[in-house]
Design brief:
The chain is mainly beta. 12% of the residues lie in helices and 47% in strands.
Length: 154
């Protein structure tokens, strides 16, 4: 890799945009005669700044014709679970609050967002999933915590 390309890669890694989810699987919750079924899908994502933390978020997905065309608004129904899956090293300047995952849940202006909070007093990472809408957000939320502990033989 050329030196300037390596610098660009390092800069992009430092910016650490929210993670993209990897679909683990979906389960049908209601059959639709036309179009996709209603379902709940589970996605996994790693914290972009803290390797060693993996989260799983489940979200309701609207089916039918509008869901199949990507025009439906998914309900603000989700659940979140995060676990330590490797060694965690807290960087010296870790923000107290940072978006680590975001996914659109409608064609316009609605998303599920996961924000990481750092509880330094308890040495715990707190992950909070919320639904955001441009005009009026939903109060639905889910929280998961990861206590930072030694990993393996360390």
């Amino acid at each position: 890799m050329k030196p300037h390309a390596a610098g660009l890669v390092a800069l992009l890694a430092a910016l650490a945009l929210p993670a993209q989810g990897e679909t683990v699987g979906c389960v049908t919750t209601a059959w639709k005669l036309i179009g996709a079924n209603h379902r709940v899908c589970v996605e996994a994502f790693a914290d972009p700044k803290l390797p060693g933390v993996t989260c799983h978020v489940s979200q309701a997905r609207t089916g039918g014709v509008s869901g199949s065309l990507g025009l439906a608004q998914d309900p603000a129904q989700f659940s979140l679970s995060c676990e330590q899956t490797g060694p965690i090293t807290i960087p010296p300047k870790l923000p107290e609050q940072e978006t680590v995952f975001a996914e659109d849940t409608s064609i316009l202006f609605k998303e599920t967002r996961v924000t990481r909070l750092w509880d330094a007093r308890h040495q715990t990472l707190v992950y909070l999933a919320i639904s955001r809408k441009l005009i009026d957000g939903a109060p639905n939320n889910s929280v998961s915590t990861v206590a930072v502990r030694p990993w393996g033989g360390r």
